[in-house]
């Protein structure tokens, strides 16, 4: 604990000095980054080229921008957007200059399971539309996510001393009760939902039985789906894939990967390149025509299907934590204004909201829900929702009023529940620091929730009533949107998280599929075969916004570096500090791929 505080104070001391030093460099980086992104330069795609899917790094839901901190570190590559990756694969199937696709496995992919599934579905379409073309995978280090994609390839190649990691999926979390007790901090919780486990890290030292029960169900279902797809791709049964996952595969010699059918050949990189030469009819590896996703989509209108004249379909991105007035994710004040502005856009024929959120502020979620209802009322046009990795708690709240909801089998959704957390630091102040608090009130019961004294029984009861009303409203919104009784919603609510397939069975979603399926469904609803996508909110980054963003990134980077293993605790405390009183939020779930 002492080391934690020493590291914590050391990190704080360095933050502002580092920001000052970096300030002018960031201005230069932003200026150069802005200039470098000012126009599109289309790379010449020659006959016999192949599309290279190098998916190292984080995959964003939509195209990213150059981060000033990354620019200073020498990284000028724009983060890949999922829609760009899928559009590139789809376009490559019809491009006579593209001979095939190479999946590069470098052990560094940062993508959610629904994102990976969307990419795999695009690769499957590529193989169906262009059976004469090939899909190869090569790597030194296949993570489970990369192998999941590679399993669809015609052949999987691995370095002779490379590694393949197939270990199933799991969930792990940190629990802080003992530490908070030692600090003298009590987290007072009011909630509705037996399975609403987002509060557990602050009031328990381990996972509760209801939380373990729900996690076991969706982990089992998601792994069953992933393993069956790997089995189908490798032409083995699911039991074989499970035996791979239970054999500490990453520690085994590469020769065994080929012997057991996990990979097809062991090749060094130059040998793989020579194989590509034979496939693309070039003499030497230096003459290979590799085209990255970023270069390939430059100059292409990836937002059009055919001529684009049939309809205009809006895609509204709602990604990240849901907050009231500020934050990096879904800011209700901004999104509500955007939705109401879109209600005046006569050219938009239908709206698909893409949701990737575990929720957040219950108040903000209600405001977004109401704005979407206003959009439907004003426009009388269809509203669909496409759920990505998460559309849970507040993420489900904002989705439930849609005319049709699409989810992937690997989507985590539901978590219909409400909670509030009020830290009480009185023991820390009085017993640890020797600071005492005295209060005088005009009204005996005029107390408000605060951090310097515990809630009285009367206030605790009132707060529980407040949370109960929020839960009643939440379940009522879900019942209205899904056209079932509120009692039926409550029977499957209780804060429980469901995977996409279970959610389909329960009526929480309408169809299994990704964003492309939702857009195709919208086009079918509009009775068109050609369309243009319009993405919202429009991406506009001002230079001073980039500087503030860079400052926040630098601070976070320094804190993580200085605190090391204690960084997750700091991040958890920061999340609690930023939460509004009433939360519709699922627990932070990061399934380990």
Compact summary:
45% of the residues lie in helices and 19% in strands.
Structure notes:
The protein is α/β, with parallel strands linked by helices. Helices cover 45% and strands 19% of the residues. It contains 22 helices and 23 strands. Helix 5 (144-150) links the parallel strand 5 and strand 6 (155-164). The chain is globular, with a radius of gyration of 26 Å.
Question: What labels describe this entry?
Answer:
593 residues, six-stranded parallel sheet, 22 helices, globular, disordered N terminus
End-to-end gap: 31 Å
The value of Rg in angstroms is 26 Å
Mean pLDDT: 86
Summing up helix and strand content along with how strands pair, one would put the structural category as: alpha/beta
Helix percent reads 40-55%
Largest sheet: 9 strands, mixed
Low-pLDDT residue intervals, each spanning 5 or more residues:
1-9, 11-41, 542-548
Overall geometry comes to globular
- Range of strand content: 15-25%
Quickly count the helices: 22
Number of strands: 23
């Amino acid at each position: 604990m002492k080391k934690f505080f020493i590291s914590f104070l050391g990190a704080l001391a360095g933050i502002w000095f580092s920001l000052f030093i970096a300030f002018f460099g960031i201005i230069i980086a932003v200026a150069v980054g802005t200039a470098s992104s000012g126009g599109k330069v289309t790379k010449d795609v020659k006959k016999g080229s192949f599309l290279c899917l190098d998916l190292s790094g984080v995959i964003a839901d939509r195209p990213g921008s150059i981060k000033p901190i990354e620019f200073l570190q020498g990284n000028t590559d724009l983060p890949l957007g999922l829609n760009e990756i899928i559009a590139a694969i789809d376009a490559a199937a019809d491009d006579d200059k593209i001979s095939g696709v190479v999946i590069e496995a470098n052990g560094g992919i940062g993508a959610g399971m629904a994102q990976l599934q969307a990419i795999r579905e695009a690769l499957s379409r590529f193989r169906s539309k262009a059976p004469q073309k090939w899909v190869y995978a090569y790597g030194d280090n296949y993570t489970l996510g990369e192998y999941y994609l590679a399993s669809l390839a015609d052949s999987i190649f691995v370095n002779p001393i490379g590694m393949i990691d197939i270990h199933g999926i799991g969930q792990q979390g940190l629990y802080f009760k003992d530490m908070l007790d030692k600090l003298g901090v009590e987290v007072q919780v009011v909630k509705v939902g037996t399975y609403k486990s987002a509060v557990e890290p602050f009031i328990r030292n381990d996972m509760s039985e209801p939380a373990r029960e729900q996690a076991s169900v969706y982990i089992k279902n998601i792994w069953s789906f992933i393993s069956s797809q790997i089995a189908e791709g490798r032409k083995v049964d699911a039991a074989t894939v499970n035996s791979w996952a239970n054999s500490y595969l990453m520690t085994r010699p590469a020769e065994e990967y080929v012997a057991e059918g996990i990979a097809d050949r062991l090749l060094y990189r130059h040998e793989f390149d020579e194989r590509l030469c034979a496939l693309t009819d070039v003499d030497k590896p230096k003459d290979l025509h590799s085209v990255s996703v970023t270069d390939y989509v430059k100059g292409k209108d990836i937002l059009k299907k055919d001529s684009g004249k049939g309809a205009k379909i809006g895609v509204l991105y709602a990604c990240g934590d849901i907050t009231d007035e500020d934050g990096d994710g879904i800011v209700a004040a901004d999104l509500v204004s955007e939705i109401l502005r879109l209600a005046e856009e006569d050219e938009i024929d239908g709206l698909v909201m893409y949701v990737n959120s575990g929720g957040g502020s219950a108040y903000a979620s209600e405001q977004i829900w109401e704005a979407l209802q206003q959009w439907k009322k004003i426009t009388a046009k269809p509203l669909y929702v496409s759920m990505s990795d998460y559309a849970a708690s507040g993420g489900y709240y904002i989705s439930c009023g849609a005319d049709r909801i699409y989810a992937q089998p690997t989507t985590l959704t539901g978590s219909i529940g409400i909670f509030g957390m009020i830290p009480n630091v009185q023991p820390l102040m009085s017993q640890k620091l020797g600071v005492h608090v005295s209060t005088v009130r005009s009204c005996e019961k005029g107390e408000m929730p605060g951090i310097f004294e515990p809630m009285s029984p009367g206030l605790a009861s009132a707060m529980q009533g407040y949370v109960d009303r929020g839960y009643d409203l939440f379940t009522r919104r879900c019942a209205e949107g899904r056209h079932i009784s509120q009692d039926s919603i409550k029977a499957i609510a209780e804060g429980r998280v469901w995977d996409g397939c279970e959610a389909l069975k329960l009526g929480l979603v309408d169809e299994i599929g990704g964003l492309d399926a939702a857009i195709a469904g919208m086009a079918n609803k509009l009775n068109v075969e050609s369309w243009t996508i319009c993405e919202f909110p429009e991406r506009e980054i001002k230079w001073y916004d980039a500087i503030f963003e860079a400052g926040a990134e630098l601070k976070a980077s320094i804190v993580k570096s200085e605190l090391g293993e204690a960084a997750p605790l700091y991040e958890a405390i920061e999340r609690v500090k930023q939460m509004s009183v009433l939360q519709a939020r699922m627990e932070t779930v990061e399934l380990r791929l």
